[in-house]
Give the backbone structure.
Amino acid sequence: IKQTSEEIQPQERDFLEHRVVKGETLSSIAEKYGISVRDIRRENKGVIFPHVNDILRIPVIRVREIKEEAIAKTDTVSLPGKPVIEIPAGITPVKNLKGKFNVAVLLPFNTPANSVRTEIDSSQVIKGRPVYKTVVRPDEWLYPQTIQFIELYEGILLAADTLRSMGLDINIFAFDTQAGEETPENLIESGKLRNMDLIIGPVYSRNLVGIAQYAARYDIPVVSPVTLISNQPLSGNPNLFLTIPSVDVAQEAIIRRAAEHKKSNFVFIQTDSSGEDEATARFRNRLVKELDSANGDDTLRFRELLFISRSSLPADSINRLEHALSPRHENVIIIASEEHPVLSEIIMSLHSLMRKYRIKLIGLPAVRELVNLDPKLYFDLGIELYSYYWIDYSKPDVRAFVKKFRNKFLTEPVENSYAWMGYDIMYYFLSGISIHGKNFVKHPEMHNPGLLQTKFYFGRKSTDNGFENNHLYLIKYTGSMDIVLIEDPEP
C-alpha cells in the first residue's frame, strides 16, 4: 500500500538537536533523518562513535505534505477443488475500509508495580550502617519491564487511528495480564474475549497457547507480537500467528547464504558440550548437507568448534578459534547460539584475529541485540546478520509515523522498539479482515499491504498448525560505518 502519505519537497534548510540513545550509530541516525553520515560529521566535528546522551546537530530540510495513492495488480491462483485465492503481485491498496471490530490487547502492563510510587533508598551509609528512607518516585517513572509493552500498545493505538480515518469502527480492549482479574486464565473464564475479532498477545508461550486454544472455538485469530523462544506454540493451533520469525527460520536463511560461499572455510561454533541438543544437531546437519550439495565434487572445508569461555579457559580460548581458521581461504563463521555472552566473546575474539585472516560472520538476529559491544567491531568485521526489521527513514509513511508518535507521546521510538511492530500488526490484520473477510485468516498470502518495518510472509507446515512469518532482511555493517540492506527476499 501507500496510504495517505508524505512526499518530501525541499523548501528551507534548518537544524535540530538529536539526543543519542542506546544502540544508535551515526549510520542509523543518518537513516532516521534521511541524510548521510558525512552530513552529520560535517556539523559535529570530531564525532566518530556517538555515546548515549550525546547531543548531535542534525541538518534537516523543511517539507510539505502531498497526498498520493498506489494501485497494485494481483495474480489469481486456482487450485483443483479449492477456492480461488488472489495473490497480490504488488502492494495491496488499503483505503475506503468498512466494518466494526473488537480487538483485545493482552500485555503485561504490570499495573500493580507501576502503582507503587515510593521506594526505599538505602544508598546513604552512616557509621557503617545503611540509612533507610522512603523517597517518592518521579512522575515519569515506569517499571522497567513495562516500557517495551507500553510502546507496543502505543503503536497499536496509532494504527487504529489510521484505520479509523479510512472508515473502520474499532473498539480496543486492553488487559493487563499481570493483574489478578485480567490474567489469561481469568479472561477465558469470564468470557470477555468471546466477542473479539482479533486478539494481540499474550507475550509468554504458556499463556499464548491457552488463549489460542480458547479463541479457536470462536474462529478468532491470535497474534504473537514478540520474539518467542521457539515456534512450538504453533503446533495444533491453526488460528495462531507468529509475527517474528523463530530461530528455525533464521537458521535456514543462514544456510542458504552460506551455500553462496562454497569455496570458503566454514567454522561452526556451538555450545552443546553434552552433544544432546537436538536443535543444534539439526542445524549442523542441514548446513553440512546444503554445503555438500553446493560444493559438488569439491572438498568441503568444515570445522566444528565447541565454545569454551575465557573464564574457563583463559589461555587457550582464542588459540582454539585461531586453529579453526584458514590463512588461505575466506572463513565463514556461523554461531549456533543466541546467548549474548557467547556471541559477545566470539565477536571480540574474531575482531582480534581479523588482521591475519579473512573473516565473514553470518549472524542470527540475536547478534543485532548486543548493546554492550562497541559498534566499531561490527563495522570492522563487516558482519552480516538477519533481522526481522528494517526501517527506511526516507519512506513517507515512516516519517509520518514518527511525526505522529512524537506529537502524541512526546518521544520517538528507537529502531528496536516494539512500537513499530504494534502498528504493523494492527494495520495488517484489521485491513486484511476488512478487505478480504474471514477467508484472510486462513489465507494471509492474499494480503500484502505496505508496512513500516517488517513484511509478513506467513506460512505453515499443515492446516493443523498456526502461521509463522518467514521474512527476514539480510543487513551488513560496512567499513564506511554504514548499515546497508543487501537482501530483501520475496515470498
